[in-house]
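Fill in residues.
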Protein backbone atom coordinates (compact mmCIF):
# COMPACT_ATOMS: atom_id res chain seq x y z
CA UNK A 1 0.00 0.00 0.00
CA UNK A 2 2.82 2.40 0.86
CA UNK A 3 4.47 1.82 -2.56
CA UNK A 4 1.21 2.68 -4.33
CA UNK A 5 0.94 5.96 -2.39
CA UNK A 6 4.57 6.78 -3.23
CA UNK A 7 3.99 6.02 -6.91
CA UNK A 8 0.86 8.20 -6.93
CA UNK A 9 2.79 11.05 -5.26
CA UNK A 10 5.56 10.83 -7.88
CA UNK A 11 3.04 10.82 -10.73
CA UNK A 12 1.26 13.87 -9.30
CA UNK A 13 4.38 15.86 -8.33
CA UNK A 14 6.67 15.20 -11.30
CA UNK A 15 4.64 17.26 -13.80
CA UNK A 16 4.63 20.27 -11.46
CA UNK A 17 8.39 19.99 -10.93
CA UNK A 18 9.03 19.62 -14.65
CA UNK A 19 6.71 22.48 -15.60
CA UNK A 20 8.96 24.87 -13.69
CA UNK A 21 11.79 24.18 -16.15
CA UNK A 22 12.22 25.98 -19.43
CA UNK A 23 14.76 26.59 -22.13
CA UNK A 24 16.77 29.79 -21.74
CA UNK A 25 18.76 31.77 -24.29
CA UNK A 26 22.30 30.45 -24.57
CA UNK A 27 21.44 26.86 -23.56
CA UNK A 28 23.38 24.15 -25.38
CA UNK A 29 21.60 20.81 -25.22
CA UNK A 30 23.01 17.45 -26.35
CA UNK A 31 20.61 14.62 -27.15
CA UNK A 32 20.99 10.92 -27.85
CA UNK A 33 18.08 8.85 -29.02
CA UNK A 34 16.84 5.65 -30.62
CA UNK A 35 13.69 4.65 -32.41
CA UNK A 36 12.05 3.09 -35.44
CA UNK A 37 12.03 4.52 -38.92
CA UNK A 38 10.40 3.51 -42.16
CA UNK A 39 10.18 4.46 -45.81
CA UNK A 40 7.13 6.20 -47.18
CA UNK A 41 5.44 5.10 -50.37
CA UNK A 42 6.68 6.10 -53.77
CA UNK A 43 10.37 5.27 -53.34
CA UNK A 44 11.87 3.33 -56.22
CA UNK A 45 15.04 2.44 -54.33
CA UNK A 46 14.19 -1.05 -53.12
CA UNK A 47 14.89 0.10 -49.55
CA UNK A 48 13.91 -1.66 -46.35
CA UNK A 49 10.37 -0.88 -45.25
CA UNK A 50 11.52 -0.38 -41.64
CA UNK A 51 14.77 0.15 -39.78
CA UNK A 52 16.17 1.01 -36.35
CA UNK A 53 17.72 4.46 -35.93
CA UNK A 54 20.48 5.84 -33.69
CA UNK A 55 20.47 9.63 -33.47
CA UNK A 56 22.72 12.33 -31.96
CA UNK A 57 21.69 15.98 -31.85
CA UNK A 58 22.93 19.32 -30.51
CA UNK A 59 20.84 22.46 -30.14
CA UNK A 60 21.73 26.04 -29.30
CA UNK A 61 18.92 28.28 -28.00
CA UNK A 62 19.01 31.81 -29.44
CA UNK A 63 15.92 32.65 -27.36
CA UNK A 64 13.46 30.71 -25.19
CA UNK A 65 11.60 29.68 -28.33
CA UNK A 66 14.09 29.66 -31.25
CA UNK A 67 17.20 27.55 -31.61
CA UNK A 68 19.61 26.06 -34.14
CA UNK A 69 19.98 22.30 -34.39
CA UNK A 70 22.54 19.94 -35.94
CA UNK A 71 21.97 16.21 -36.07
CA UNK A 72 23.49 12.97 -37.32
CA UNK A 73 21.69 9.67 -37.53
CA UNK A 74 22.26 6.20 -38.87
CA UNK A 75 19.66 3.55 -39.54
CA UNK A 76 20.30 -0.16 -39.47
CA UNK A 77 18.45 -2.45 -41.85
CA UNK A 78 19.08 -5.53 -43.94
CA UNK A 79 18.94 -3.52 -47.16
CA UNK A 80 19.35 0.25 -47.51
CA UNK A 81 21.22 1.89 -44.61
CA UNK A 82 20.72 5.67 -44.35
CA UNK A 83 23.44 7.87 -42.80
CA UNK A 84 22.22 11.46 -42.50
CA UNK A 85 23.51 14.85 -41.40
CA UNK A 86 20.95 17.58 -40.81
CA UNK A 87 20.96 21.26 -39.83
CA UNK A 88 18.09 23.65 -39.26
CA UNK A 89 15.91 25.55 -36.83
CA UNK A 90 13.69 24.50 -33.94
CA UNK A 91 10.76 26.56 -32.59
CA UNK A 92 9.47 25.77 -29.08
CA UNK A 93 5.98 27.05 -28.37
CA UNK A 94 6.49 29.45 -25.44
CA UNK A 95 4.14 30.45 -22.64
CA UNK A 96 2.29 27.16 -22.17
CA UNK A 97 1.76 25.97 -18.62
CA UNK A 98 2.24 22.34 -19.54
CA UNK A 99 4.89 20.00 -18.15
CA UNK A 100 6.11 19.44 -21.72
CA UNK A 101 7.51 21.90 -24.26
CA UNK A 102 6.15 21.17 -27.76
CA UNK A 103 8.23 22.19 -30.75
CA UNK A 104 8.32 22.31 -34.52
CA UNK A 105 11.55 21.90 -36.47
CA UNK A 106 12.68 22.34 -40.05
CA UNK A 107 16.01 20.89 -41.19
CA UNK A 108 17.90 20.34 -44.41
CA UNK A 109 19.28 16.83 -44.90
CA UNK A 110 22.30 15.42 -46.67
CA UNK A 111 22.60 11.66 -46.63
CA UNK A 112 24.53 8.73 -47.93
CA UNK A 113 22.37 5.68 -48.66
CA UNK A 114 24.40 2.48 -48.47
CA UNK A 115 23.48 -0.82 -50.16
CA UNK A 116 20.73 0.48 -52.42
CA UNK A 117 20.41 -2.50 -54.73
CA UNK A 118 24.20 -2.81 -54.45
CA UNK A 119 24.94 0.90 -54.96
CA UNK A 120 25.71 3.90 -52.76
CA UNK A 121 23.66 7.05 -53.40
CA UNK A 122 23.81 10.63 -52.16
CA UNK A 123 20.56 12.23 -51.06
CA UNK A 124 19.41 15.84 -50.48
CA UNK A 125 16.16 16.67 -48.73
CA UNK A 126 14.26 18.45 -46.01
CA UNK A 127 12.80 17.28 -42.72
CA UNK A 128 9.80 18.48 -40.73
CA UNK A 129 9.82 17.58 -37.01
CA UNK A 130 7.10 17.62 -34.38
CA UNK A 131 8.23 16.87 -30.85
CA UNK A 132 7.98 17.48 -27.13
CA UNK A 133 10.66 18.03 -24.50
CA UNK A 134 10.01 17.04 -20.88
CA UNK A 135 12.61 18.86 -18.80
CA UNK A 136 13.15 16.91 -15.58
CA UNK A 137 15.71 19.40 -14.25
CA UNK A 138 17.60 22.39 -15.64
CA UNK A 139 20.13 19.99 -17.17
CA UNK A 140 18.32 16.68 -17.80
CA UNK A 141 15.37 16.03 -20.06
CA UNK A 142 13.47 13.40 -22.01
CA UNK A 143 11.68 13.80 -25.29
CA UNK A 144 10.08 12.27 -28.30
CA UNK A 145 10.09 13.55 -31.86
CA UNK A 146 8.42 12.41 -35.05
CA UNK A 147 10.03 13.53 -38.28
CA UNK A 148 9.11 13.33 -41.94
CA UNK A 149 12.08 13.47 -44.30
CA UNK A 150 11.58 13.86 -48.07
CA UNK A 151 14.03 14.44 -50.88
CA UNK A 152 15.75 12.97 -53.86
CA UNK A 153 18.90 11.09 -54.71
CA UNK A 154 21.45 12.72 -56.97
CA UNK A 155 22.79 11.29 -60.20
CA UNK A 156 21.65 10.41 -63.70
CA UNK A 157 18.34 8.89 -62.53
CA UNK A 158 17.21 10.70 -59.38
CA UNK A 159 14.65 8.91 -57.22
CA UNK A 160 12.36 10.05 -54.41
CA UNK A 161 13.38 8.88 -50.93
CA UNK A 162 11.20 9.68 -47.94
CA UNK A 163 11.11 8.43 -44.37
CA UNK A 164 9.07 8.78 -41.21
CA UNK A 165 11.00 8.35 -37.96
CA UNK A 166 10.01 8.41 -34.29
CA UNK A 167 12.86 8.94 -31.84
CA UNK A 168 12.80 8.84 -28.06
CA UNK A 169 15.77 10.62 -26.50
CA UNK A 170 17.48 11.79 -23.36
CA UNK A 171 19.08 15.24 -23.25
CA UNK A 172 21.68 17.08 -21.21
CA UNK A 173 22.11 20.88 -21.15
CA UNK A 174 25.15 22.87 -20.14
Amino acid sequence: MRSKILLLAVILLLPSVASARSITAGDIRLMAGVGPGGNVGGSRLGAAAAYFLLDLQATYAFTRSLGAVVEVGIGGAETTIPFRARAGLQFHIPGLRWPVLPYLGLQFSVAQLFNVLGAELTYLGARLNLGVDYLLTKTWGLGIVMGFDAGSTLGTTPAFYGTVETIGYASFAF
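Confidence is low (pLDDT under 50) at residues 16-20.
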